[in-house]
Design goal:
- With 634 residues, this protein is mainly α.
- The protein contains 27 helices and 2 strands.
- A two-stranded antiparallel sheet has the order 1-2.
- α3 packs antiparallel against α4 and α9 packs across α27.
- 46% of the residues are buried.
Length: 634
């Protein structure tokens, strides 16, 4: 029984030798494949599902099944990684030496605490040098402070959205069902799970073998339908400026029949409003720089990037703020009750009363302490930047983090879809300030305070723990035991990949394509050549319209999901369309099978997740081995 329902919290210990072996297996076996996939395609692996399945079967052979607590720890933490931290450090070293940076005149302004400036380090491709101490040490310190801030915000939003409001968190329901089915082995549900996993495996094999493995072997040269089939060119004959496509991701399809159908429809409507209708109006009316740069046949990725940068980034802030704030105003009692509960109210759950770290003062100290520490580190390094910039950093590190975490946690709780924070807002505010200073302060672009955006994903994780009956303390113990191992192995593996071949290079195609683009983009921001101020009128108008729609839906009971619309305007149209297809499929199945479908849909989704994840992992690992053969000369 779950603590929120029974008042008691029963859980088996999850930090066992079996779990630790499983986590180490996931780290040492799958992390190299995860790094290679990231460097080659920018993709990722579902290592958690595969590790969970392997150790479930090993436990079955030993006649002692995994507990649900052991299972959820394996599922969530076996794929944990921080290797991107060290890839980012290599990217910084590349930025400092790039001809693009030199052409913009920024080379001499790169600080030594951000990237080593010694060319010998770059040519020898090694982290083992004294000039890396400050960049690595500072990066790890900010990373650890960010983990603390994210965790504190996750625990706070858990009390509001999981304990008090009891949002469903549809994707966590799927993961919990996968754990339940594989642990309990109930025959009927196991059959449903196996059939779904088989179909997903076959689909993933047909999709990824030609596109990934055969391409690596040189037998396939067609266009990859991953992650979507782009049909924008056909749509643009009727609606210039529009983007449209179909996501080929089977996980997205499954999400469509897990999330409530009315929410799926709202997500699709929101995406259509922005990326089909809105973009067409921008082009036909000649509004914004997007209309100037648009050309017939422009691909989805380019349309998304440019229309967001030049037109929609501002209004999307207004929509997201309204989607987070108005429900809190309307349901303020839930927020107040959540705060009271964290302060030690008698209404707290059994687990919350048992765990002292769930008290509000502890969470606030952790959140404020880590966030303000990062602010003052940045302020110290940016000597003489001015108190106004200090205030700006404090606002974004505390205020913006709090607002966006509330918005995103609610989006995950209702739709299962994350709302990406508008990453251009802070750079625009930063540029607006430093451009007024008498001296150029390019160094301000090389360090930021913590702007916590991970609290929502922690909140979703805590919902999963609640669903399977795993104590937060047990889970966090496993997390912090494995964290230093993950960081150290990430460092070592990235060093090995760097020794194997230069970055960027054709050996790692994603770096060869993406890193120069990123260098150019950052230099454009630093020099102000990309600067486009958000129109406050658009932001305020979007905020008001969204608020009006929320209250219309709340008082008329029309199927208007504001968080669904907010998620939709932040969701690419191929994803929204495939979710709609999945939702329609779910409605057909519900009409045909009734209650049986309602009971089994999360089992089906869990089977799909496991089946596709297993095949993708196998194909990716095989591709990595094939590719690594011609990296050997390095």
């Amino acid at each position: 029984m779950m603590g929120t329902k029974s008042g008691k919290y029963k859980s088996e210990e999850g930090v066992t030798w079996r779990v630790l072996i499983g986590l180490l297996y996931g780290i040492f076996v799958f992390q190299p494949a995860m790094i290679w996939l990231n460097l080659s395609t920018g993709g990722s692996l579902a290592a958690g599902w595969v590790t969970f399945l392997i150790f479930t079967e090993i436990a079955r052979l030993t006649a002692k099944s995994l507990s649900k607590t052991e299972s959820v720890v394996l599922l969530n933490l076996a794929g944990m990684s921080y290797f991107s931290t060290f890839l980012t450090l290599i990217y910084r070293a590349y930025f400092a030496r790039s001809e693009i940076t030199r052409a913009f005149g920024i080379r001499d302004y790169v600080p030594s605490w951000w990237a080593p400036l010694d060319d010998h380090v770059w040519l020898s491709r090694t982290f083992i040098d004294q000039s890396w101490l400050m960049p690595i040490g500072l990066t790890l310190l900010i990373t650890l402070l960010g983990i603390v801030a994210d965790l504190a915000m996750g625990l706070l939003t858990r009390e509001i959205y999981v304990v008090q409001e009891k949002l469903t968190f549809p994707l966590q329901q799927v993961a919990a069902e996968g754990v339940n089915v594989l642990v309990e082995k109930e025959e009927r549900r196991m059959n449903v799970f196996t059939i779904a996993a088989t179909f997903a495996s076959i689909y993933a094999a047909f999709l990824y073998v030609p596109s990934v493995l055969l391409r690596a072997l040189g037998y396939f040269r067609g266009e990859m339908p991953i992650p979507w089939v782009d049909i924008s060119k056909d749509i643009q004959r009727i609606l210039p400026g529009a983007a449209f496509g179909v996501s080929t991701d089977v996980f997205t399809f499954a999400g469509g029949f897990i999330v409530p159908f009315s929410v799926v429809v709202n997500i699709f409507v929101g995406s259509m409003i922005i990326y089909v209708i809105g973009n067409h109006l921008l082009v036909s009316m000649g509004v914004t720089k997007f209309a100037e740069e648009y050309y017939t046949g422009m691909r989805i990725s380019e349309i998304m990037y440019k229309s967001h940068m030049y037109a929609w980034a501002g209004p999307l802030i207004g929509v997201a703020l309204a989607a987070g704030i108005f429900p809190l105003i309307h349901r303020y009692k839930i927020f107040v009750q959540g705060i009271k509960s964290l302060m030690g109210s008698k209404t707290r759950t059994y687990e919350a009363r048992e765990e002292s770290f769930l008290r509000l003062p502890i969470l606030l100290i952790a959140w404020f302490g880590s966030s303000l520490a990062s602010v003052f580190i940045a302020y110290y390094l940016l000597e003489g930047i001015g108190s106004t910039f200090l205030i700006i950093m404090i606002f974004f590190s505390l205020g913006w983090s709090f607002i966006w975490t509330l918005v995103n946690a609610r989006a995950l709780g209702v739709t299962g879809v994350t709302i990406e924070p508008p990453g251009t807002l802070y750079p625009i505010v930063k540029y607006s300030y430093i451009s007024t200073l008498p001296q150029a302060r390019y160094d301000a672009w090389f360090i930021d305070p913590i702007i916590s955006m991970g609290g929502a994903s922690w909140c979703a994780t805590f919902k999963l723990l609640d669903l399977v009956g795993c104590k937060i303390k047990t889970y966090l113990k496993s997390y912090f035991i494995i964290l230093p191992i993950v960081i150290i192995t990430g460092f070592l593996y990235v060093q090995v990949f760097w020794w194997m071949a230069p970055m960027p290079s054709s050996v790692y195609p994603m770096t060869a394509v993406q890193w120069p683009l990123n260098v150019g983009s950052l230099n454009l921001w630093i020099t102000g050549k990309i600067f486009t101020a958000f129109d406050p009128t658009w932001i305020i108008s979007a905020f008001i319209i969204t608020g009006v729609l929320y209250f219309i839906g709340a008082f008329t009971h029309l199927p208007i999901s504001i968080i669904g619309l907010a998620a939709g305007v932040n969701t690419i149209i191929p994803t929204a369309f495939t979710m709609l297809i999945g939702g329609i499929f779910g409605e057909i199945m519900k009409r045909r099978y009734g209650d049986n479908w309602n009971k089994d849909r999360t089992v089906v989704a869990a089977g799909i997740s496991l089946g596709a994840s297993a095949i993708i992992t196998i194909i990716t690992t095989a591709t990595m081995l094939v590719k690594s053969q011609w990296a050997l000369p390095y």
